[in-house]
Write a structure and sequence with these properties.
heterodimer; A: 107 residues; mainly beta; B: 123 residues; 7-stranded mixed beta sheet; globular
Chain lengths: 107, 123
């Protein structure tokens, strides 16, 4: 089972600032990496798949990069609605596995 | 409206059974593989099970294999999870999730989630 790690655990950012979240896989997952956003009390929402492709309806301020074992989610200018927990997930190998999440909160 | 609505959760004693349901609407249900994903209180996400569009291919996480059974009824646009021999560690919010890929086998990432149904296993 591929183990996913995320850093930092918590990221404190001011509205309008840039946020950079990291995800690392224990072994290569190629580009089969997805990012999800989960707001408190809500279901996760798909943001990015294929490491860098935005899902339908996702604003351009969200971007993903990386391949192999190192991945990054960047939020270029944080809006109030972006404060949430972000999970990465690999789907290169069974079983699909999620990282523990990065909480983005207001500085 | 494109949505998934789970039901069937509740409080159950260890060793007992529970059946979860998920009603799908707004998309061609039988085009897609479907999954169950769970989230223990205050914890992260754990994939539980997948079923292909025609039920011909089914997978389970090791943590539930032999105890849980996934099924679907395409005529009713519904997904199910039969959970037997429940344990305290099965306590979680269970989400129904749609695979992104329309080939029917799935690519194992999820572009539509329900709001979840809470299962609490406790004596």
């Amino acid at each position: 089972e591929k183990v996913m790690t995320q850093s930092p655990a918590t990221l404190s950012v001011s509205p309008g600032e840039r946020a950079t979240l990291s995800c690392r896989a224990s072994q290569s997952v190629s580009s089969k990496l997805a990012w999800y956003q989960q707001k408190h009390g809500q279901a996760p929402r798909l943001l990015i798949y294929g490491a860098s492709t935005r899902a339908t309806g996702i604003p351009a301020r969200f971007s993903g990069s990386g391949s192999g074992t190192e991945f990054t989610l960047t939020i270029s200018s944080l809006q109030s609605e972006d404060f949430a927990v972000y999970y990465c997930q690999q789907y290169n190998n069974w079983p699909p596995t999620f990282g523990p999440g990065t909480k983005v909160d207001i500085k | 409206e494109v949505q998934l609505v789970e039901s069937g959760g509740g409080l159950v004693q260890p060793g007992r059974s529970l059946r979860l349901s998920c009603a799908a609407s707004g998309f061609t249900f039988d085009d897609y593989a479907m999954h169950w994903v769970r989230q223990a209180p205050g914890k992260g996400l754990e994939w539980v099970s997948r079923i292909s569009w025609h039920s011909g291919s089914i997978d389970y996480a090791d943590s539930v294999k032999g105890r849980f059974t996934i099924s679907r009824d395409n005529a009713k646009n519904s997904l199910y999870l039969q959970m037997n021999s429940l344990r305290a560690e099965d306590t979680a919010l269970y989400y129904c999730a749609k695979d992104h890929d329309s080939s029917g086998q799935g690519l194992w990432y999820f572009d539509l989630w329900g709001r979840g149904t809470l299962v609490t296993v406790s004596s």
